[in-house]
Write a structure and sequence with these properties.
It contains 25 helices and twelve strands. By secondary structure, it is of the alpha/beta class. It folds into three domains: 236 residues, Rossmann fold (3-Layer(aba) Sandwich); 56 residues; 89 residues, Arc Repressor Mutant, subunit A. The longest helix is centred in the first third of the chain and has 20 residues.
Amino acid sequence: MSDLRDLAMKSKAWPFEEARKLVKRYAKTPPKKGYVLFETGYGPSGLPHIGTFGEVARTTMVRQAFEVLSDIPTKLLCFSDDMDGFRKVPGNVPNQEMLAEDLNLPLTRVRDPFGCHDSFGAHNNAQLQAFLDQFGFDYEFASSTEYYTGGRFDAMLLRVLERFDAVMEIMLPTLRAERQASYSPFLPISPKTGHVLQVPTLSRDVAKGTITYLEPDGEVVEVPVTGGHVKMQWKPDWAMRWAALGVDYEMSGKDLIDSVTQATKICRVLGEPQPQCLTYELFNDEAGQKISKSKGNGLSMEDWLTYAAPESLSLFMYQKPKTAKRLYFDVIPKAVDEYHQHLRAFDGQDPAQRLNNPVWHIHNGQPPKSNMVVPFAMLLNLASVAGATDKQGLWGFIRRYAPEASPETHPDLDAAAGFAVRYFNDFVAPTRAFRLPDEKERAAIEDLCRRLRDWPGGQDGDALQSLVFAVGKDHGFEPLRDWFKALYEVLLGASQGPRFGGFIALYGVDETVELINRALAGELLRATS
C-alpha cells in the first residue's frame, strides 16, 4: 500500500491531483467529525440528467483517489435541494397545467405529474437514486426538506440569523438595485399558502430565533428560522450547508463560479472553513447549446444506456473535466471503443501508468478484462452491410472472425452487438448517403475486387489492410485518406469508417467482393434513394 501511495502522490491523473489538495488540508490534524465529507448537489426542479450523474461519478473518482492517499474515512453525500421553491414548469414533463397551479411551493409539496410519488421532488429524487444505485455508487442520499424540518440545520440557521448583516454585506453588492430592496437570505414558508416567499426581512429577533416579514395580503408575520419554517436563498443556503455539515470537497459547473465565490465568503463569515472546490466545464448539445434539465436537450442517462454499456459513460465523464465537451449521440461509439482500448492497455502497464489509466478510476483500481475482440465501430459497419435487425445476425460473422467467441464467453461483445444494431438503425441508417465512384475511384475499386478474388491470405486483417493500402498507392491516391474516404462513401454510405482490412476480415473476403459488385452496379445507391 505504501508503494501505491507513493506513486499516487506523483500521479498526474486529475483525481489524484484533486485528492492531494485534501491530503494537504488535513496534513496536521484529522477532521473533528472523523471523516472527510464529499458532497454533490442536485436541484430536483427537473428530471435528473446526464450531468448530474457526471458530477457524482467524478466526485467518486476523487474520493477513491483520496482513499489511496489517506487513511481518514470518507463519506459521499448526494444532497437534493428539494425544499427549493418551484419557480418554473419544465417543458419535458406531463400535466403542465397541474404543475402550474403548484408554482412557488417547495418541490416536496408540488404534486407529482407522473402520479407515482408523494411529490415532484420525491419523484425526481427517486429517479436519481435508482440510477446511481444501478451504477453501484457508494453514497448517502440527503433531502433538504428532511434536514430543514428535522433540525439538522437549526444551529447554523441561528448563526446566520446572528450574522445577518455580514451576510447581507456580501450578497447585496452582487444584486441589481431593485433586487437589493427585496432581498433577504431567509425565504419564509408561508403558513397561509405554503409558498416559498421571496420577501424582505422586516425585523429579526436573535434571542427568539425569529424573523418578521410581510405576507402578500399585507399581514405582518413572525416565524422561527428553525424547524423548516424558512428556506435559505441559494448562495447563503449552499454556504450554510457547507458550514453545518463540514463539507470538505464539492465540484460544480462553470456557471456556478459566482455562487462558489459568494458561498465561500459566507462560509467564512459563519466561522467555518470552505470546502475544496473544483469547477468543471459544462456539457453542450450537438448545436453547442448548454444542456438544460428544463429544456431536456442533449442526452439523458437513459439515452446513453440504450446504446452503450455504462462504463463508456464513466469514461466520457473522466476525460478532461475542465474542458467543454459536446454530449450527443455521435460521441457514444468513440467512447465505447476508447474504454476497451484503455482496458486492453491496463495489463501491460506498470503501476505508475495504471494510476494514470482512466479505467483505474472508473473501477477503483480493479478493472475487468476486455473481451471486445471486435471494435464497436466495426460492429456498426457490419450491421450496415449485413442488414442485421438483431444481434444474432452479427454473430455468424463474429464467430467466423473469432471462432473462440460466443455470447456466453464474451458477454460484453454480445451486449455491444445488440447496442450496435440498435444504434445503427436509429442513427446511422437514416443518414447513409451512398454514391457512385468517379472514373479513378472505379478503376481502383475494380482492381481491389480482382485482387480480393485471388486473395490467398485468409482472414488476416493486417495483411488485408496492406492490400488495400497497396491498391490505393498503385492508383495514385494522394493523400491515401482520399482512397479510404472513397471506399467508405461508395461501399458504406459514410465519409468515415473502420480500419478497412479489419472490416474485410470480419465481413468476409467473398462477401466484400459481392458488396463491391453491388456498389459498382448502383444497387446500394438505388436501395437508399
